[in-house]
Specification:
The complex is a heterodimer of chains A (417) and B (183). Chain A is mainly beta and 417 residues long. Chain A contains 4 helices and 23 strands. Chain A is globular. Chain B is an all-alpha fold. Helices cover 68% and strands 0% of the residues of chain B. Chain B is built from 8 helices and no strands. Chain B is elongated. Classes of the chains: A mainly beta (417), B mainly alpha (183). The interface between A and B is large, with 82 and 92 residues.
């Protein structure tokens, strides 16, 4: 008989294991690389040697200076009135050739004031401009989280894909926008209804974090693995702890922007790969609720059903040998050509609740005009992989549907099917 | 030389000073990257990319006291990029060496380690990052959120889901002590 073991201790012990030394070779390679790598020039008060020497005092001055600059750019109804000038707050994060900045002309606002927040996405590369691909609602979204409570709003993007051009020196600037949804039966539903009913951005007393998130690709289209950046500021709200606007109607189940795709089925395409961005997953694996195949007038259809969003999709031609993930064992697939369907951010296993809602088949051979075999070959690390063998090279389309959340793949019939 | 002076020099293009800074922070970066990515070679690549990015963007560091959090944010983004770049890394991944069992004072059995490794690999790379910063580095959740530049609620949520998954992987075994195997 052994003593009961603490799972959290085991997790800590597990994470304590592993290499902790960076080999000298890596330091040497870094040193060699930086000898011929220039440093970016930054335009701001923190770029001056004096700023660096003055440390924290200079940092405060710099923030004030930033607030003055922001004050010139934003509508001037910042709080404060007579007395000390408001101190602006900002945060920036850089990834590759892009910098995301969120800022507010003041870190402190009254509960009855319209809070001003904006975010900018800058292109830092050497070209005159660049094209990025992201949500049709724009590459920048906002979320709001109560620091000492459990209220959080926002973070929703529409699931369509659109191009956005950023010119050097002309960042995309987005004022704060509300997004997100809630369920009428959750404890904070009354507050959420009030928040979303208010046409201006106001918050009740307390500390709140406001985050600007940018999700986009810098390639040719939206992919399953976009660049993700987030910058956060903390705002202190003084005054009433109650919402300033009464709900105008019974709590609606959702104010999330409706994805523009789903209402209309897109045309079939023979250009591969076909990709779709994830929608509404907040990085949590989506649990597969159902998988269905069917045949219609001029196409066969595969439907993956989820609850709470749809995963990202990458659909492309597969080349033999076909193998199982992660074992690498060979997998036979009937039909030709064979497509590989990769759903990133989805799994059949609900680890949180120890359940598997979908327990149906994972190998379909329905005898439809086009679907010869549709077989799972991996469900690992929140990536759900399938092979689709069809009856001759066809055009396909993929799109999402709502209520319930579904990801649909159609395979076009050929004349005579 | 004091770290603030090294940073000052590095921000003015002193490669020697940056090299010294890198050597004070490199091991900790390696420890974090190894635990997030579960592969030492990939982790080395992520740390190397991190240090080069840090050199290039040194002048963006406004507060020298925030050097480590600033570097760790770059590191986690580099880990995300490596995971994205090697999307098939899971199939060719190398397991962490088993001979580290003695370092854990025999708390972990081989079976525990196997279960946790499988469960950890099922997590998203974003969930792994918050787990490593919270459980391994020991940062409080608001600091994890700040260091990663994510909303507090998102950090809480990721830790909750990841911890639940990892606990579930070992709790079933803990309920059947007679089946415990030794390392």
């Amino acid at each position: 008989m052994t003593a009961p073991r603490d799972p959290d201790r085991l997790i800590d012990a597990f994470l304590a294991e592993g290499q902790t030394d960076l080999p000298d070779r890596v330091y040497d390679e870094v040193r060699a690389e930086i000898e011929h790598t220039g440093q970016r020039t930054i335009f701001g008060p923190w770029n001056s040697p004096a700023f660096l020497r003055f440390g924290a005092l200079a940092a405060t001055a710099a923030v004030v200076a930033l607030a003055v600059v922001i004050g010139l750019q934003l509508p001037s109804n910042a709080p404060g009135g007579p007395g000390p000038a408001p101190v602006g707050v900002s945060d920036s994060v850089t990834s590759g050739d892009f910098r995301l900045t969120i800022s507010s002309p003041s870190g402190t606002w009254g509960s009855d004031e319209a809070i001003e927040v904006e975010a900018t996405l800058e292109y830092l590369g050497n070209a005159a401009e660049t094209t990025i691909w992201g949500s049709g609602s724009g590459p920048i979204g906002f979320s709001v989280v109560e620091v000492s409570g459990d209220r959080e709003m926002g973070g929703a993007f529409t699931a369509d894909c659109a191009s956005h051009v950023i010119s050097a020196g002309q960042p995309i600037t987005t004022p704060f926008q509300k997004s997100g949804g809630y369920s009428p039966d959750e404890p904070n539903a009354t507050f959420y209804a009030s928040f979303f009913a208010d046409p201006v951005f106001r918050l009740p007393a307390g500390e709140w974090q406001v985050t600007a998130s940018a999700t986009f690709d810098d390639g040719e289209t939206c992919t399953a693995s976009p660049i993700q950046m987030a910058a956060t500021i903390t705002l202190t709200i003084e005054g009433s702890a109650e919402p300033s606007v009464e709900p105008t109607a019974p709590a609606e189940p959702s104010l999330t922007p409706e994805p523009s795709i789903g209402a209309v089925e897109p045309p079939f395409t023979c250009d591969l790969p076909i990709t779709l961005a994830a929608a509404g997953t907040d990085f949590h694996p989506l649990i597969t609720q159902d998988i269905r195949v069917g045949t219609h007038g001029d196409f066969d259809r595969i439907v993956f059903e989820y609850d709470g969003g749809t995963p990202s999709l990458d659909l492309d031609l597969a080349q033999p040998p076909y193998v199982q993930d992660p074992s690498g064992l060979p997998q036979e697939v009937a039909g030709s050509p064979v497509y590989r369907i990769t759903l990133i951010g989805a799994t059949k296993y609900d680890q949180e609740n120890g359940e598997q809602p979908y327990q149906g088949p994972t190998d379909f051979e329905p005898g439809f005009p086009q679907i010869v075999q549709f077989v799972e070959f991996g469900d690992f690390e929140a990536t759900h992989n399938w092979y689709l063998g069809v009856n001759g090279a066809q055009c396909l389309r993929a799109f999402t549907l709502l209520d319930p959340d579904r990801l649909v793949i159609d395979i076009q019939h050929v004349p005579g099917d | 030389m004091h770290q603030a002076e090294l940073i000052d020099r590095a921000q003015h293009g002193d490669a020697e000073a940056f090299d010294a800074l890198a050597r004070t922070a490199g091991d900790r970066c390696m420890a974090i990257a190894t635990r997030i990515l579960r592969d030492t070679d990939v982790a080395q690549d992520a740390v190397q990319a991190t240090l080069i990015t840090a050199w290039r963007d040194m002048r963006q560091l406004r507060d020298p006291d925030r050097f480590e959090p600033w570097l760790h944010r770059i590191l986690v983004n580099a880990c995300y990029a490596e995971a994205k770049r090697r999307r098939r890394w899971s199939s060719s991944i190398r397991m962490l060496p088993v001979d580290v069992a003695s370092n854990a004072n025999d708390i972990l059995t081989v079976h525990d380690r196997d279960q946790l490794e499988r469960a950890f690999r099922r997590l998203t790379v974003e969930q792994r990052a918050v787990m490593v910063l919270h459980h391994y580095i020991g940062l409080p959740v608001p600091e994890v959120a700040d260091r990663l530049g994510i909303p507090l609620g998102t950090a809480k949520s990721r830790i909750h889901h990841a911890t639940t998954a990892l606990r579930a992987s070992v709790e079933a075994d803990a309920r059947v002590p007679s089946q415990e195997r030794t390392a």
